[in-house]
Specification:
transport, two-stranded antiparallel ribbon, globular, heme binding, c550_proteobact, 44% helix, mainly alpha
Length: 142
């Protein structure tokens, strides 16, 4: 006759591993990384309505790094989304896309009390945000 708790140890181990895996795969609360915007013209406190760094090589380089440090965990490496968050390669180019981008990165997105994207205003500088936007335009797809 087998003992009724014979597989309890195995079950406990499986549940423990599954719980740990969910923590590894979850995005959880992540700390935004500082963005060094040295080399860019300072923009001041008032947010500009359009990207002043469009096609600026320094901004694109900074934006690439800033995206990887702060955005890729949800929006995917190279802005290729794995389905967790929108694929930012499809943001409209130019001023139209600037408006959408700036609103979302500054204010984030909350629906039904759930945070889908944290607000980055007060965490990332305007210069860092526009640098990210500059880089995103280099990976744009139609």
């Amino acid at each position: 006759m087998t003992h009724p708790f014979r597989h309890l140890g195995t079950l406990a181990a499986v549940l423990c591993i599954a719980g740990a895996a969910s923590q590894v795969l979850a995005h959880g609360d992540v700390v935004p990384q500082a963005v060094d915007t040295t080399g860019l013209k300072a923009l001041g406190a008032d947010f500009l309505p359009t990207n002043p760094y469009r096609k600026d090589k320094t901004a694109i380089r900074i934006g690439d790094s800033a995206f990887n440090q702060n955005c890729a965990r949800c929006h995917g490496l190279g802005a290729v989304s794995g389905g967790i968050a929108p694929d930012l390669r499809y943001l409209p180019l130019g001023d139209e896309g600037d408006e959408v981008f700036l609103q979302r990165i500054r204010k984030g997105a909350v629906r039904d009390g759930r945070v889908y994207m944290p607000p980055f205003e007060g965490t990332l500088s305007q210069e860092a945000m526009w640098s990210i936007r500059s880089w995103l335009e280099t990976v744009h797809e139609d």
